[in-house]
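Summary of Year 1 activities. Much of the first year was spent building the evaluation harness for sequence design. The harness presents a backbone, in tokenized form, and records the residue chosen at every position. We chose the following record to illustrate the format because it has been used consistently in internal testing since the harness was completed.
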């Protein structure tokens, strides 16, 4: 895999998950069938090129992340839904 500054080529990434390190800083894991990359809040990264499958590579990166930040948790992305208030001109829907 040809990396640039530790970053995987977009064509290699099959799974990306955002994380909070437990201190309010965000990091993420990119994984694919040929490796993984951990992106930390300070813009540094760790990576490994290994043909182990996307899920196995993600699990390995997660183990390393949890070793650095034991209180880390996955950040859930909001589910996008269609706004039903278009008729009254509101830009955002209330829950």
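For this record, the design step produced the sequence shown next.
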């Amino acid at each position: 895999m040809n990396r640039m500054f530790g970053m995987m080529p977009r064509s290699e990434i099959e799974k990306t998950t955002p994380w909070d390190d437990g201190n309010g800083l965000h990091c993420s894991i990119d994984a694919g069938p040929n490796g993984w990359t951990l992106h930390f809040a300070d813009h540094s990264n760790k990576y490994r090129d290994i043909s182990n499958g996307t899920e196995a590579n993600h699990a390995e990166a997660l183990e390393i992340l949890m070793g650095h930040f034991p209180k880390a948790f996955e950040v859930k992305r909001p589910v996008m839904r269609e706004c039903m208030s278009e008729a009254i001109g509101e830009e955002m829907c209330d829950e």
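The chain has one domain: 10-88. Quantitative recovery figures across the full test set are reported in Table 2.
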